[in-house]
Specification:
Layout (H helix, E strand, L loop, with lengths): L8 E5 L4 E2 L2 E2 L1 H14 L3 E3 L12 H17 L4 E4 L5 H12 L5 E4 L9 H15 L3 E5 L10 H10 L3 E5 L5 H6 L6 E3 L5 H5 L5 E3 L2 H4 L1 H12 L3 H18 L1 H4 L5 H12 L20 H11 L8
Parallel strand pairs: 1-4, 1-10, 4-5, 5-6, 6-7, 7-8, 8-9
Antiparallel strand pairs: 2-3
Helix pairs in contact: 1-2, 3-4, 9-10, 10-13, 12-13
Length: 306
């Protein structure tokens, strides 16, 4: 039985400020400070939107040392993404992450070959040992080589004692039936949080937070309190995402991280630009004006704080 504390709420992702292919650590520091001042429930690093797959080990360590320093200074919960497509290197990242005493460490399953549940179990047990008592969160996104079934998620949760939660796209009927959402911290895609909170979702590693961290925090609080108004706002968020944002991925071929960076640039709360690191394409800034008009019409709550 898992003994670590559950985690919940609106967790803001670190987005890499890139200039001439280098990380702009001054802008990254400003971003962390903004999240802290905005009062988000927590901050996490090196997810998909954090472009972990483009970072050297020295960059990974520098990003997370900066995050840990600022979060410890302000008592802000934080999670370190120790994700890596190379499983041995992932374990080294987990070891380093544990030295920063984060709230939790996020990992992905070995990526190149689709792994069986047995292989996933072997990897997660090794990650647990490397984490040295720090809680683990398993990120199993839609583009993962293996999408674990509800029963497989339960098996991992029951056997990896430091595994406290999962980042998943939704709480499906199978997951709901398994009872896992009542036991573990399941985080869903941000724009489905109001609906899935009724099914047991504990929060989001939130794409919605990219638009406006302060507004996303208020909305998350309403979602987790099961306020009906949260469902009405969710419907408008989903309309905006489907109409204005998703086509960048489904029709134009941009990667998810490019969309998250574009939303942060669109939101105007950050000095971040939408520039992606090689070899991924960046959504042009010239698209912002039209998206802002629709945003003002559909989501005035996300424009009101600028």
């Amino acid at each position: 039985m898992n003994t670590n504390c559950l985690i919940s709420g609106n967790w803001a992702t670190l987005l890499l400020p890139i200039h001439d292919e280098s990380i702009d650590f001054e802008k990254l520091s400003t971003q962390i400070e903004y999240y802290i001042a905005a009062g988000v429930d927590g901050i996490y690093s090196n997810g998909t939107a954090g472009e972990f797959y483009t970072q050297t080990e020295s960059e990974f360590q520098a990003v997370n040392c900066l995050l840990a320093e600022k979060c410890h200074q302000h008592d802000m919960p934080f999670q370190v993404g120790a994700c890596h497509c190379h499983p041995q290197e992932a374990l080294e990242r987990v070891k380093f992450a544990s030295s920063l005493t984060p709230t939790a460490i996020q990992v992905i399953l070995p990526d190149w070959f689709p792994c069986s549940l047995d292989v996933a179990m072997v990897f997660m047990k090794a990650a647990e040992q490397a984490a040295n008592g720090v809680s683990l969160v398993l990120y199993n996104p839609p583009h993962a080589k293996v999408r674990l079934s509800a029963n497989e998620l339960v098996d991992l949760y029951d056997n990896i004692h430091s595994l406290v939660g999962f980042k998943l796209p939704r709480i499906t009927p199978d997951i709901e039936k398994s009872g896992l959402a009542k036991r573990a911290s399941i985080f869903v895609a941000g724009h489905f949080l109001a609906t899935d909170a009724y099914k047991g979702a504990k929060g989001a590693y939130s794409n919605v937070c990219c638009l406006n961290p302060k507004s996303a925090q208020k909305w998350t609080d309403d979602c987790l309190k099961l306020k009906p108004a949260a469902l009405e706002l969710e419907a408008r968020i989903q309309q905006y995402m489907a109409q204005e944002i998703a086509p960048y991925i489904t029709e134009q071929g941009y990667c998810n991280a490019a969309v998250d960076k574009f939303m942060a640039t669109l939101g105007g709360w950050s000095n971040l630009e939408s520039t992606m690191r090689f070899p991924f394409a960046s959504i042009p800034k010239s698209d912002i004006a039209d998206k802002l008009i629709v945003m003002g019409e559909l989501l005035p709550e996300f424009r009101s704080q600028y």
